[in-house]
Amino acid sequence: MLRALIFDVDGTLADTERDGHRVAFNRAFVDAGLDWCWDVARYGQLLRIAGGRERIAHFIETDAAHVPPDERDALALRLHVRKTQHYLRMIDTGAVALRPGVARLLAESHSAGLILAIATTTTRANVDRLIARTLPAGAAAWFSAIVAAEDAPAKKPDPQVYEVALARMQLLPHECLAFEDSAAGLRSASAADVPTIVTVNDYTRDQDFSGALVVIGDLGDPPAPARWIAGAALADAVVDVAQLRAWHRLAAGSP
Ligand code: XBP
Ligand code: MG
């Protein structure tokens, strides 16, 4: 029986990367007097590295080798702290919006008694602020578990973040459905045996989603329908709780 929904954040709850995180990283670089600037294409490549601080550290290794090795970690940390300050301010100003159907499905699922959880590589403060800024007052209490970068140091595609979420909810993988946007996120949830629904975005649409229960463009929000891409059939125009229960039965192999 479907008991819980586990949502990724970046790219899934909200399309945060291109016009959110990427802009915040660049503002932090400017503040530090660095001439680094991650354009849309380069950031798409850097997204292969999960975790903002790890992403900066990787960039230093590949593009700023002049930084003395014993100063690199401290620099990456300092830049990431500043980047997070910029990103939080962007959320506060409404620069980060939820993807189509997310607010609707979260509210409907909560009302239907489904347990909700978050499993993300991003910084916890980013999650709390996004929920506070984009969902109804009190919605933070809808989530039984919010597992973020601080709780699962092994980043996606490692399954740790999903394993921590399952343990906190005391649920089995097949009692849940995961929502992801990227191949790394799908691999993370799949490695934890959680059946996964993928909603793609501009950065991830060409990635390999083999093993996903279903791949769609987004969850759909009337009058705009969800766009089916691959996997289990989409019965109606939008993804609702009835559709999730049907997909979950399919994943469980029950009629
Ligand atoms: C996506 C990530 C994060 C964000 C940046 O997380 O890999 O690192 O890109 O956020 P997910 P931070 O898709 O798992 O939500 O700078 O806070 O890491
Ligand atoms: Mg994601």
The number of domains is 2
Order of helices and strands: EHHHHHEHEHEHEEEH
Going by CATH, the homologous superfamily of the largest domain would be HAD superfamily/HAD-like
Tell me the number of helical segments per DSSP (H or I, 4 or more residues long).
9
Largest sheet: 7 strands, mixed
Radius of gyration of CA atoms, rounded to a whole number: 18 Å
Termini distance? 12 Å
**What name is given to the CATH topology of the largest domain?**
Rossmann fold
Per the principal axes of the C-alpha atoms, what is the gross shape? globular
Q: How does the helix and strand content classify structurally?
A: alpha/beta
The CATH level-2 architecture of the largest domain is identified as 3-Layer(aba) Sandwich
